[in-house]
């Protein structure tokens, strides 16, 4: 399948391995999912979802094989699972551009804990399809190995939606290309019908108690010029570079917040004394 996707010779779309729509009170437990043609587990417009003790496997070079993607869903718990795929391990979503804005159903109350895995893309991701809004996401005790990006919050102009009250803590990452990325220029558009003036709002993102080994580049946070990211808190973070090579500097723009006990020291936009409150109240 991979070779057909790379050659762009597929004549049809690829299905999710399991997709649940407009459902509630779901438990998925003690199951192995393997070699999905697209996203593995996709609860969309669902509530009260528990996914635990699952193993998800896909080739490292298989495109778009996200592990678990809660989408416009609420009260979702993902825990005690191992994921090794060709795309994001867990990605929280809520709709794409004008379609997600019009439907207007956010993802909220998402808990992710004790998840281990590897991927050429992100360990834990928010987005990039966040047009309905994403809020109240809590991730802890995450172990990420041999991964492109440890933590990735991603959106784009034309998306709209608000990303707020995101907390990730007690994360260990090893052999990653970029430790932390929070970007406002990621992801394409489904068609030309999107509104370029529909700017996303990102505020209240707290990342704390993170340890990284062999991290090529510690992080980058690039907001949107007309919609800067606010209330970004980095606390107790150590991202160690590759031995003998070190790590590159943080890169930031159009962002405000605070940093406490971060190694290497991040960009000036997060070190102002006026931003210290972001770490005590990042909503």
TrEMBL record:
Residues making up the signal peptide according to the UniProt record: none
Gene Ontology molecular functions: polygalacturonase activity
Record's keyword terms, sorted: Glycosidase, Hydrolase
Coiled-coil ranges from the UniProt annotation: none
One GO term of the biological process aspect: carbohydrate metabolic process
Pfam families per record: Glyco_hydro_28 (PF00295)
InterPro entries (UniProt xref): GH28_Enzymes, Glyco_hydro_28, PbH1, Pectin_lyas_fold, Pectin_lyase_fold/virulence
Family as reported in the entry's similarity comment: Belongs to the glycosyl hydrolase 28 family.
PANTHER family, per database record: PECTIN LYASE-LIKE SUPERFAMILY PROTEIN, PECTIN LYASE-RELATED
Name the UniProt record assigns to this protein: Polygalacturonase
Organism encoding this protein: Stephania yunnanensis
Lineage of the organism: Eukaryota, Viridiplantae, Streptophyta, Embryophyta, Tracheophyta
């Amino acid at each position: 399948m991979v070779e057909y996707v790379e050659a762009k010779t597929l004549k049809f779309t690829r299905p999710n391995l399991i997709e649940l729509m407009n459902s509630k009170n779901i438990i998925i437990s003690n199951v192995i999912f393997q070699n999905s043609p697209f996203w593995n587990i996709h609860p969309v417009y669902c509530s009260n979802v528990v996914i635990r003790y699952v193993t998800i496997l896909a080739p490292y070079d298989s495109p778009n094989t996200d592990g678990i993607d809660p989408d416009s869903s609420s009260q979702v718990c993902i825990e005690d699972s191992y994921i090794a795929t060709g795309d994001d391990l867990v990605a929280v979503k809520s709709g794409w551009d004008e379609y997600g804005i019009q439907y207007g159903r956010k993802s909220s109350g998402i808990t992710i804990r004790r998840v281990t895995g590897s991927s050429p893309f992100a360990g834990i991701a928010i987005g990039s399809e966040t047009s309905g809004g994403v809020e109240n996401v809590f991730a802890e005790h995450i172990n990420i190995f041999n991964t492109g990006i440890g933590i990735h919050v991603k959106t784009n102009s034309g998306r709209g939606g608000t990303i707020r009250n995101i907390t990730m803590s007690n994360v260990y990452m090893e052999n990653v290309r970029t430790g932390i990325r929070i970007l406002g220029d990621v992801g394409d558009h489904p068609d030309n019908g999107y509104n370029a003036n529909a700017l996303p709002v990102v505020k209240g993102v707290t990342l704390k108690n993170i340890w990284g080994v062999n991290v090529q580049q510690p992080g980058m946070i690039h907001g949107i010029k007309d919609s800067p990211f606010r209330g970004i808190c980095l606390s107790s973070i150590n991202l160690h570079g590759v031995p003998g090579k070190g790590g590159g500097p943080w890169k930031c723009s159009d962002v405000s917040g605070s940093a406490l006990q971060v190694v290497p020291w991040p960009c000036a936009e997060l070190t102002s004394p006026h931003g210290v409150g972001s770490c005590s109240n990042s909503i």
